Each structure stands twice: as structure tokens, then as C-alpha cells.
UniProtKB/TrEMBL annotation:
The lineage of its organism: Bacteria, Bacillati, Bacillota, Clostridia, Eubacteriales. GO terms for molecular function: metal ion binding; tRNA N(6)-L-threonylcarbamoyladenine synthase activity. GO terms for biological process: tRNA processing. It comes from Candidatus Faecalibacterium intestinigallinarum. It is an enzyme of class 2 (transferase). One of its GO terms (cellular component) is cytosol. Keywords: Acyltransferase, Metal-binding, Transferase, tRNA processing. This is N(6)-L-threonylcarbamoyladenine synthase. Residues 49-297 form the Gcp-like domain. Pfam families: TsaD. It comes from the Bacteria. InterPro entries: ATPase_NBD, Gcp-like_dom, KAE1/TsaD. PANTHER family: TRNA N6-ADENOSINE THREONYLCARBAMOYLTRANSFERASE, TRNA THREONYLCARBAMOYLADENOSINE BIOSYNTHESIS PROTEIN TSAB. It catalyses: L-threonylcarbamoyladenylate + adenosine(37) in tRNA = N(6)-L-threonylcarbamoyladenosine(37) in tRNA + AMP + H(+). Its EC number is 2.3.1.234.
Length: 312
């Protein structure tokens, strides 16, 4: 028996996970970064501080549930995307902790990215080993991305389409904070949206595999000003994101027919979005929130593979 440890320190949450190289997630921990009421996220210096403060205690919690002496490799996300120039200081906290753990244990350190971690977690939840062996169309939709990716074994990731302006998660969070919810607000926006029984026709702006979401924030503000209920506006916002996913997916499948489509990222945890998309594109795969939102599960899985301990 051997385990791998995954560490991810994004701008939203501190995440740890342990993966059994026999092919099972053993344990996963996540702690959202504290954001003051009314604010839309943290400065990088504050995020780095909170990660550094949280990691020792979270590792102690992990040690109480898992035998960390069985860790055979450590994985850590060192930057947002596998692209030149991609950088955020918040990931330094995870790199420091991961490197210290690996050196102390004499185990390999596998460096990956936040986006590849999202991809690995989603593919594992959707298809286990199978999806790691083929090309997949992957949506990564969160507070910092609205990316449609061609994912080849999670080693090579090609950007096929994205937003030209606002990201989907930004639109959702800005609406949620405007309504008084804590940041990140996606779960509360989705909960409130589920209370709206009205039929809504969303308006999305998509050209091929590219989209624009800057108008969505203004549309939501206009609907609230016109007297629409918060539940209606939340549902409208999420359905606009869902319709964007549908139209971008159709454009991508027209160019690359037959590829599996998997959705990742915190925004894609919404049942409102999932139901809208799957009614129109039943083959699109969504995964449980634990694997869709920020997590270290994917990083722990990639550590196992790259260290030659899984999927040999």
C-alpha cells in the first residue's frame, strides 16, 4: 500500500488530499479563505498569509485520518495554468509546504498546475482510468476561467475557447455579493435560483468556441432594478452560463466529433447549470461538487501517475 499527497493553494481555498495508488481517494480536506463581507476575494498577500496559517493545522487533521508515513510522492499546484507566464503568489504556500514534506520524507515532489488538478479530478470522477488515456473536451469554469480545453491525458492542454472579458464565476460571485451573500457566492446563488419556478429564456453571447460575459453582469443589474426577484435573477445568471456552455460545446463538437465532454470548476457544481446543459446535450458529463470545485484530489492523482505509482 502507498499513498500520494496533493496540495493546492488557490485564491479561493486551501486544499489537501490523499490518494491510494490502488486507485481510490482516501481523504480530502478543504478550507475556504476568509473574505470580509461585501468583498470580492482577497489580495494575493492576504491569500498567501491565510494559506500559510492554515496548512499546518490541516496537515495535522489529515494525519489524524490517514497514515502519512505511507506517502510515496507529493504533488503540488505551482501556478494557475500550464502556460508560460502563468503565476499567482498564493501557490507559493503550497509549493513551500509540499517541498518541505517531500524533503523530510525523502519522496518525489511532482509539480503541476491548478488547472491540471481540476482536469484530473474531473476525469477521475467521470471515467476513472479510461479518460486519462484519451482526448477529452474539458470545460474549466470558475472565478478565474471560462475555458474550453482539449485535454490529452492531462499532460497536454490546448485552449480552444474562452471568454473575451468577464469570467463566469466572476459574474456569479458579483451577483451573489450584491445580494448580500459571502464570497465565493456560487452555492448560495444556485440555492436561491432553485426557488424560482418561472420559465426563463437566457441570452448568451457566443461566437464559435469564444464567448463574452461582460453583458451578463449588466443584465442582472437591470433585472434587479426592474423589480425581478433575486431568485429569478440568480436563475437567469446561471442559465446564461449554461447556455454559453451548450453553444460552445456544439461548436467544439462540430470540429471534433465524438470526443467525451467533461465539466470542471466550481461554477459547474450548480444543479441548475447541469440540468439545463444535459437536457440539450445528454452526453456532457458533470461530476460531484467535491471533484468539480477547488480541490487537491486531482493533484494527488497526478502525483501518483507522474511518480509511476498509478496508471503505469
Amino acid at each position: 500500500m502507498s499513498y500520494t499527497l496533493g496540495i493546492d493553494t488557490s485564491n479561493y481555498a486551501t486544499s489537501l488530499a490523499v490518494f491510494d495508488t490502488a486507485g481510490e481517494v482516501v481523504c480530502a480536506k478543504k478550507r475556504f479563505l476568509p473574505v470580509k463581507e461585501g468583498q470580492l476575494g482577497l489580495r494575493q498577500s492576504d491569500a498567501l498569509f491565510h494559506h500559510t496559517a492554515a496548512l499546518p493545522g490541516m496537515l495535522a487533521e489529515l494525519a489524524a485520518e490517514c497514515d502519512l508515513t505511507q506517502i510515496a510522492a507529493v504533488g503540488v499546484s505551482e501556478k494557475p495554468r500550464p502556460a508560460e507566464g502563468s503565476y499567482m503568489p498564493c501557490f507559493l504556500a503550497g509549493v513551500s509546504a509540499g517541498q518541505a514534506f517531500a524533503l523530510g520524507r525523502g519522496t518525489p515532489l511532482v509539480r503541476t498546475t491548478h488547472q491540471q488538478g481540476h482536469a484530473a479530478a474531473a476525469l477521475f470522477a467521470a471515467g476513472g482510468e479510461r479518460l486519462f488515456r484519451e482526448k477529452v473536451l474539458l470545460f474549466h469554469i470558475s472565478g478565474g476561467t471560462t475555458d474550453l480545453l482539449l485535454c490529452d491525458q492531462v499532460r497536454r492542454i490546448e485552449l480552444l475557447g474562452t471568454s473575451s472579458d468577464l469570467y463566469a464565476g466572476q459574474a456569479v460571485d458579483r451577483l451573489g455579493v450584491k445580494l448580500g451573500f459571502a464570497f465565493p457566492a456560487g452555492a448560495e446563488v444556485s440555492r436561491l435560483a432553485a426557488e424560482c419556478a418561472e420559465e426563463i429564456r437566457p441570452k448568451s453571447s457566443v461566437k464559435g468556441t469564444a464567448c463574452s460575459l461582460s453583458g451578463l453582469e449588466n443584465q442582472c443589474a437591470a433585472l434587479l432594478a426592474a423589480g425581478k426577484s433575486p431568485a429569478y435573477v440568480c436563475k437567469y445568471c446561471l442559465l446564461c452560463v449554461a447556455d454559453t456552455v451548450v453553444r460552445m460545446t456544439r461548436a467544439a463538437l462540430a470540429q471534433r466529433p465524438g470526443l467525451p465532454v467533461v465539466c470542471a470548476g466550481g461554477v459547474m457544481s450548480s444543479g441548475i447549470i447541469r440540468d439545463w446543459v444535459q437536457r440539450r446535450l445528454p452526453a456532457v458529463q458533470f461530476v460531484p461538487a467535491q471533484y468539480a470545485s477547488d480541490n487537491a484530489i486531482g493533484v494527488s492523482i497526478l502525483a501518483a501517475r507522474e511518480a509511476g505509482l498509478w496508471l503505469k
